[in-house]
Amino acid sequence: MEVDMIQKPALAVEPPDANFNPDLTPETGEQYLQKVMYERGKCPVVVCAEKPQSLHQQKTLSGLAALPTDEVKNVAHRALIPTREWETMQNQKFAELRDTITSYRGSAQYKENLQRTHVFLNFEDRKHLHEYCANNLPYVSILLSIPQRNLEILLEYLHEWLQDSDQASSVASQQQDEPSDPELCDVAAALTPSVTSKEELHRGDGYRRDWIPQWIYAILACLIKPLEPYIHSVLRDIAKTCIALRNELKQEDEAKVLPLNLLISIISKHFNQCDLGDNIA
Q1: pLDDT band (50, 70, 90) for residue 24
Q2: What is the number of other CB atoms lying within 10 angstroms of the CB of residue 176?
């Protein structure tokens, strides 16, 4: 008897009869509940999911770029895979660079230099950002004046440009802006790893445009942790793209593979994406 009382409806509503019109907009609470009852009666007892698409057809959207959801397999020639010693050295340099940037952010010079090094970049204009990055080196003095959210947006754009294999137009040469703070000159040099010269940057030589991995490297050095989950997804996609690009290189392309190996190593070691690394401890 007590169970019957508990299960007794709190609000008695007559079920919809043969004259019920589900297309009419409910005007009362009773009519609304009758429509709910009508729609519930139309729901099938068993629902079968549609057959999933092939992995090669399935796409996932990460940031601004679509990538296949299947994992990228490393099929590069063994000569193109970095040694553990090389990775250790590069990650140590990257860690020292991040420490230098963190210390500089806490210094009295930081806010003072922000006024002198600020550059206006329109982050809603992808073409404007593309032209600026292609024609300017990623100095720390510039990157530190950019809010983190905008750095994350730029990182997504750079990933998209890295995937674009048709960027064949030459980069217009122009005078580079030197960092205004002497202490930042050494840091700016560290942001452009010795994988290419400034002249090569302007000629547009190399496997993919060398300025793209340089800017990615620079942004990674300036990102403040912890990061949003979707940024980790973007970083994974960048590393996977680098692996895919490395797979296309030949054994003799050791010079071209250096920036790709550098990004794969840093993302896997410093941003907790160890499953994408080449030398997993």
Answers
A1: confident
A2: 14
CA distance 271 to 25: 53
Contact between 146 and 121 (Cβ < 8 Å): yes
- Strands (DSSP E) contained in the chain are 59-62, 65-68
Greatest CA separation for the chain: 89
Instruction: Determine the residue type at 245.
Output: L
Tens-digit pLDDT profile for residues 110-121: 877 776 666 788
* Helices 126-135 and 148-163, axial angle in degrees (round to 10): 80
142, two tokens: 């510039």
pLDDT band at 94, cuts 50/70/90? Answer: very high
**Structure tokens, 173:** 């040469």
Per-residue model confidence as pLDDT tens digits over 240-281: 999 999 999 999 888 889 999 999 999 999 998 988 988 765
Q: What is the mean pLDDT of residues 128-148?
A: 89
Supply 199's token pair.
């002249």
- DSSP type of residue 202: H
Distance of alpha carbon 268 from alpha carbon 281, whole angstroms: 11
Who's near 92: CB < 8 A, 6+ residues apart? none
Q: What is the DSSP string of 87-139?
A: HHHHHHHHHHHHHHHHHHHTSHHHHHHHHHH-----TT-HHHHHHHHHHS---
Residue 105 confidence (pLDDT): 86
- pTM attached to this predicted model: 0.65
Q: Helix or strand or coil: residue 67?
A: strand
Q: CB neighbours (10 Å) of residue 136?
A: 17
CB atoms within 10 A of CB 162: 23
- Alpha-carbon distance values, 161 to 143, 234, 273 (Å): 19, 13, 22
| DSSP for residue 221 | H
